[in-house]
Specification:
By secondary structure, the chain is an alpha/beta fold. The protein has 10 helices and 11 strands. The protein folds into 3 domains: 79 residues, Arc Repressor Mutant, subunit A, CATH 1.10.10.10; 109 residues, D-Maltodextrin-Binding Protein, domain 2; 99 residues, 3-Layer(aba) Sandwich (D-Maltodextrin-Binding Protein, domain 2). Helix 1 crosses helix 4, helix 2 packs across helix 3 and helix 5 crosses helix 10.
């Protein structure tokens, strides 16, 4: 008989590209993971992996069963949710949240859920969407919160998950209170071309996104100060060293020494989505949590 855990191991090896990374993802030891692969080979009477250099690759036989195996694993993992589809939301619900979404919407949603759904426990993990998707595919999370600057083009969507938009998170320019721009009702990004900026590192895409609005912004982005924490970016502004661009959701408290001015650019927002496996998207617990997150984002 085929062990579903062995199928999950095969999927993890494929998705991570490594036995070591797959073991880390699933919380197994490498020898234990190898035992599951050998067990699957005996059940299917075919080799699943072969050595390639210092690692392994899936055999043609393994690749042939990969998608049916994924469907089986996802179906089994979704059974508890589907069984509760029409019941009151309950059980443990695991959600991946990037930092500002954890502060801005997940924790407030958890507080509401504690009163509204006493049998439901939301367990958050603070993690960026990319690594979160790996955990979602391997059944270690129920949903992942995702973000994108501006509107999202869903051309070439990943069939492994469904995207549910929960709302938009506006962006503001944050400037010193005595700065001439602080008296504006709105600011456009090209207005910042001559300013010293403080931004999160380029892998967070704020720099390239800002620069895309005008060639004049390229120099400002290239010489921008960098800081990972939003509180550090605000501190640059408080001390008059720079101006910055911040989302409203989950950002630090702003002192009286700085002013947040709305950006007037048409795409000056983050699109916030929930990513969920299609088979579980209509489960009552999933729809209830999505509603809680949407209400937290809109302030309702």
């Amino acid at each position: 008989m085929i062990d579903p855990v062995s199928l999950r191991v095969l999927l993890a090896v494929h998705d991570t590209g490594s036995v070591t990374r797959a073991a880390r993802l699933l919380g197994y030891s490498a020898p234990n993971l190898t035992q599951h692969l050998r067990k699957l080979e005996r059940a299917l009477k075919a080799p699943m992996v072969v050595r390639a250099g210092r690692g392994v690759v899936l055999t043609p036989e393994a690749l042939a069963v990969l998608e049916p195996a994924r469907a089986i694993v996802e179906g089994l993992e979704a059974l508890p949710l589907l069984a509760r589809q029409e019941a009151e939301p309950s059980g443990t619900f695991r959600i991946a949240a990037f930092p500002t979404s954890l502060r801005g919407i997940v924790l407030p949603a958890m507080a509401v859920a504690r009163e509204r759904y006493p049998r439901l426990e939301i367990v958050p993990t603070e993690i960026e969407p990319g690594p979160g998707l790996d955990l979602l595919r391997n059944g270690r999370l129920d949903v992942v919160l995702s973000k994108a600057l501006g509107p999202i083009d869903h051309t070439g969507r990943d069939p492994d998950h469904l995207r549910i938009r929960i709302g938009l998170d506006p962006l503001d320019a944050v400037v010193p209170a005595q700065h001439p721009l602080a008296r504006r009702d709105t600011i456009s990004l090209p207005d910042l071309a001559r300013e010293r900026l403080a931004l999160t590192p380029n892998e967070d895409l704020y720099g390239p996104w800002i620069a895309s609005h005008s060639p004049d912004l390229l120099g400002a982005v290239e010489r921008a100060y960098e800081a990972v924490e939003l509180a550090s970016l605000v501190r640059f502004v408080e001390l008059g060293l720079a101006v910055t661009v911040l989302p409203r959701m989950g950002r630090p408290h702003l002192s009286e020494s700085v002013v947040a001015v709305p950006l007037a650019d048409d795409d000056a927002f983050r699109t916030i989505e929930v990513l969920v496996r299609p088979i579980a998207a209509r489960a009552r617990t999933v729809t209830a949590v999505v509603e809680l997150l949407r209400d937290a984002l809109t302030g309702e």
